[in-house]
Amino acid sequence: MSEPRIIDLRSDTVTLPSEAMRRAIYEAPLGDDVFGEDPTVRRLEAMAADRTGKEAALLVASGTMSNLVAIMTHCERGDEAICGSEAHVLHYEVAGAAGVAGVQLRPVANDARGRMDPAEVEATIRGENVHMPRTSLLLLENTHNRCSGAAIPLADIEELSAIAHRHGARVHIDGARIFNAALALNTTVAELAAPADSIGFCLSKGLGAPVGSVLCGSAEFIARARKMRKVLGGGMRQAGIVAAAGVYALERMVDRLAEDHENAKALARGLAGLPVVRLDPETIDTNIVIFEALGDWRGFMRSLKDAGVLASSPRPGFIRMVTHFGIERADIDEALERARHAAAAVA
Predict the structure, then answer these.
(1) Is 116 a member of any domain?
(2) What is the pLDDT of residues 265-290, one digit of tens each?
(3) Residue 3, pLDDT above cutoff 80
(4) CA separation for the pair 21, 46 (Å, rounded)
(5) Does a structural domain hold residue 9?
(6) Can you give the CATH number for the domain in which 173 is found?
(7) Pairing between strand 198-202 and 135-141?
(8) 216 and 162 part of one domain
């Protein structure tokens, strides 16, 4: 018997570029970006700055590099940055803030919706003291990866940014999926980014590009960030090959994110009906579905994999599925049917 067709819901990073995107990459005019001469990179950076409402932008290799460059640009060695307890920069970026930038991360609790208590954030900011590091940066995340892709409302960003600025700290948004957040909140990326000093977003997730992220901020910030990118080996020369996919994505792949959100909600509703799943479908804002698997959760994941449905686990007892370009509604229906059989196998 043939193996079942794989339905890969591990992450929206597994997307493959469409034929039209591949053609745009092939046809892109190129130059040396380190010399500032790649026209496709310049076009992408101008588009990104416009979309985020910032003065300038910088193409980087990844979201992790975007966050690290932002930390290195905003902070001095020995400084401290506040982040959420569930932040991507804290869990998945190999302690780059400390190991490379020399910046200590100090977490404040995220609730189940990825939000932070403003009073706790303010209490965590350190005053001037010879014994303590300077709190120079507040790191926010939108959407919130480990909190089921929750979209953080503008009011929260405004309040937290105002607190940080009042104490002389800067604000950076890890906006890897900020276009998903804007869609879910019925607003624009520029509005969500306005309170912050910088924001980075990924091209390689829901937007479907094969690689790359863009860091956006003031012209002065980006000028300094460009040097930090160089420190990290991020000068990519004829980077228009990467940027062309980003241009295509911003022009043609943003509106289709609504399909991912609809598919995620359908997936959540179906999973919630399984006896081995604890999940409230109303908590799903965007394209990430995280649910508690009751009982033998590892066995459930193995059964899903055997059935050709790939998922991941953000922490013990929980399973994560992400909808994305290349996953259609029929794939969701098929994944749910296979999940029913997998659940029965471990019940």
Answers:
(1) yes
(2) 999 999 999 999 999 999 999 999 99
(3) no
(4) 19
(5) no
(6) 3.40.640.10
(7) unpaired
(8) yes
